[in-house]
Amino acid sequence: MRLFKTVSVIILFLCVFLSSCKKETSWDIDAAIPIAKSHLNISNFFGDTIFQADSSGLLHIAFSKDLINFTIDTLVKLPDTTVNLGYIVPFTTNLTPGSVIYSNASGTDKEITFDVPNGVALNKAIVKSGYLKIEYQNTYAQPLNFSYVINSATLWGTPLTVNQVVAGNSHLTKIYSLDNYDINLTGLSGNQINTLVQTYTIATDASGQPDVLQVGQGMVINLSFTEIVPEYVQGYFGQQNMSFGPDTTELGLFGNFAPVNLQLTQSAINFRIINEFGIEMSSSINSITSINSNQSSAVTLNAGNMLQSINVNRANKTNNPSNPVFPWVKQININSSNSNLNPFLENLPNYLAYSVNATLNPLGNISAGNDFAFFGRGLKVIADIDIPLKLSANNFMLVNYSKIDLTQIKELENLNSCDIILQAINNYPFEARLQGYMIDEYGQTIDSLFLPGNNTLVSAITDVNNVVLSPVNSKLEVTLNKQGIEHLTKCKQIKFVSQFFLPNQPTPITIRDNSYLDLTLHAYVNYTVKNK
Fold it and tell me: pTM of whole model > 0.90?
């Protein structure tokens, strides 16, 4: 009897359990989840590569910008050149295979002269790349052979040679590479310029048949030297006057850094003039202007005569093919003491406008035809900019993005409430006002986090000279409404916008390599988990 009662109780329990399993159950879960972190060092907003710390830890914006890069293709242009050759018989001739129709051995067309502009007189060139294009037209019934040699163009000591058979009554076009050929441009006499030597023969080919060459028949040939890019040129490059600009170049320096009423304590630009040409020049940087296109403002650099009438000496050869040039370098240091450089840079330029003139060989052909230029080498003007971050300003803004991680919140669609708490550690010597913007997967801003007036981060603790003694923690809190929770579920990253307010006193603020703002964003959520 007792066994029966026990079994009955077990069966009743199982029935109740199974019945309850068929019903939906739910419970609420509270969780504190870190969803975004950001370490905001000022280098985040420019790129680490342009920052350098000096021995005291003071950060410097230090970077280089190419203003001029004047290369061989601007200095010497080898134009495409076409030459007409061939022979048309003036009378009827009986020919057998292997008969020579014409040879220029005693002719006057042994030389080809290139029309090089700007008074450039070359005596030697090495071709990096280029082509000899030959178009053949044979109006004779039998095949003709064109034997052609450019005696002045050699590759490893062997002249460029073409032997081409052209079928009777046909047209043919062939392309021959000129890559790496050494070209002597002194002509037959050895004292000419821009001139190479060629020899050629036109003959009936041994594969043909005896035939009659009628009046007006023969071979017409067009030779074209095309797309010639020199690896090396030598000669006299003339007394050319070169102008660069007026033109502008993008600076790409200040980016999102937009201070109001910026005042620098010091700054410097070192202009490096690097001449890799074997040629003397005289140059002047006529003007250089900082342009802030966002504010429509411009400041022209005033450095007296320091950038005027600069004598540029020639480079020298190293006789090392992998590094063929000893460049000549001149440095001109413009700083806040000898110019208006501080206002020039305080304009926060995103563009530089410039105008530069140069005169080649101002003293004439003093090298006796030994000016030279190598491919990839040239005249460069580089501006090395140095700005110590010891400055004054009303305020400035920095922007950074942080990906958001919601993977720990399993039931995004069942959120009941969400509080966002931001923990901040400020190691900068000024307070900040922070806003966080929710960005969706399409890069669109869909909401903001903090209420204006309730988003201030306290400054680090400093001494009387604004030197940081210790960082300070701050906390910002916000409760999301239903729409804010919906936007959070679509958020893929947070855009943090920090507006820093500098103390209003004469002592400049010093930004060091250990300055930072650490942000940690937590979501304190309550969500419902359902079990069916």
Answer: no
